[in-house]
Structures are given as structure tokens and as C-alpha cells.
Design goal:
CATH topology of the largest domain: Umud Fragment, subunit A
Radius of gyration: 25 Å
Number of strands: 15
Keywords: Hydrolase, Protease
Shape: elongated
Strand order of the largest sheet: 1-2-15-3-8-13-14
Protein name: Signal peptidase I
Largest sheet: 7 strands, antiparallel
Catalytic activity: Cleavage of hydrophobic, N-terminal signal or leader sequences from secreted and periplasmic proteins
Strand content: 25-35%
Membrane topology: Single-pass type II membrane protein
Helix content: 10-25%
Subcellular location: Cell membrane; Membrane
Order of helices and strands: HHEEEEEEEEEEEEEHEE
Structural class: alpha+beta
Length: 182
């Protein structure tokens, strides 16, 4: 047996109001759910960029949309944020871990050779349209990366403290991978 109130018809205006309210509520819940999932996946915007080491791809005014590396495969050319360690010990800046923004140059297991301003990966010259040298490069380096190690460099090569100084970065110290830079 149906209740009497269930047999009543809503006036047309009330029905439109009810349907539009339900639509707005559904959209709001969808937005909140999507936002929660993105936050859970580690998606966030980073706005505090200091220095010129990634000039021109990333400047102090840049905003970077990042995701946790657990959810995106790290590839050569990706821009990442990473915690600096030296011989396994975290490097601090004013009591906080030193976090840098650099570009992935070398991947696990690869041999990196730098001769002046030329970078070679497994004996092949790397094409680097993003690299900037304000003068002749003077680097001389040969390194084979271990498992889960990455070689990071700033785009502004003569004004960057990166894997040439700190050594390779282990995957556990790569905090995030850029999805977009504005």
C-alpha cells in the first residue's frame, strides 16, 4: 500500500526546482570526488621556485602541476622536484630539506658522459634543445647509474647545482614529476 503523499504530483515549478537542485548537487559531489582523488594521487601545484637553474623552462614566476612519481613513469626530459642528499645524508637549507627542481637526463642503468657542453647517454650524443650555456661548458664526467638512480641537470647548465655536484638521485628522493609548467 502506497502512502498518500506518494500519489501527489508536484507542481511543475517545484519539479524543475527539484531536478535542478539534484543536478547541481550531483555536479558538486562529482567535483569534490574528483578533487579528492587528485589529492590522493599526489597532484599539486608548486609555486616556490628560486634561482635561474631551470631558466627558461621554469622561472621564479612559474607554477608547476606535479604528480607523485608512483603514478607516472619517469622519462628522460621530465621536470622533477627532488630532495638533495649527499652520500645518503639529506642536505638542509635553513633547517628544512633542500628540494630542487631539475630535468631528468639519465635513467637507471645508463652511462652518462659529459664532455664540455656535450652530454652522452650510452655513448650517444643527447639532443638537448632546452639546455642553455652562457659560455663554454667545462664539465668532464663519466658515471654509470645504478638501479633506481637518475641523473638530474638544470637547463641553465652553468648556473645549476645538480647531479654533477650531488651525484645521482635515488627514486625515493624524487618527490614529484611535472605534468605541466605555466
Amino acid at each position: 500500500m502506497r502512502a498518500k503523499w506518494m500519489n501527489r504530483k508536484l507542481p511543475k515549478g517545484n519539479l524543475i526546482f527539484l531536478l535542478s537542485s539534484l543536478t547541481i548537487l550531483s555536479l558538486l559531489l562529482g567535483f569534490i570526488t574528483t578533487l579528492s582523488i587528485l589529492i590522493h594521487l599526489g597532484l599539486y601545484v608548486h609555486t616556490n621556485i628560486f634561482g635561474e637553474s631551470m631558466h627558461e623552462a621554469v622561472t621564479e614566476d612559474s607554477r608547476i602541476l606535479y604528480i607523485d612519481p608512483e603514478f607516472k613513469e619517469i622519462r628522460r626530459g621530465d621536470i622533477v622536484s627532488a630532495e638533495v642528499t649527499y652520500q645518503g645524508i639529506p642536505v638542509e637549507d635553513s633547517g628544512e630539506p633542500l628540494i630542487i627542481v631539475k630535468r631528468i637526463i639519465g635513467l637507471p642503468g645508463e652511462t652518462i658522459r659529459i664532455d664540455g657542453d656535450q652530454v652522452y647517454i650510452n655513448h650517444e650524443l643527447l639532443s638537448e634543445p632546452y639546455a642553455y650555456y652562457s659560455g663554454p661548458g667545462e664539465d668532464d664526467l663519466l658515471m654509470t647509474l645504478g638501479e633506481e638512480e637518475y641523473f638530474l641537470m638544470g637547463d641553465n647548465r652553468l648556473d645549476s647545482s645538480d647531479s654533477r655536484a650531488w651525484g645521482p638521485f635515488h627514486i625515493e628522493h624524487i618527490q614529484s614529476v611535472a605534468l605541466a609548467v605555466n
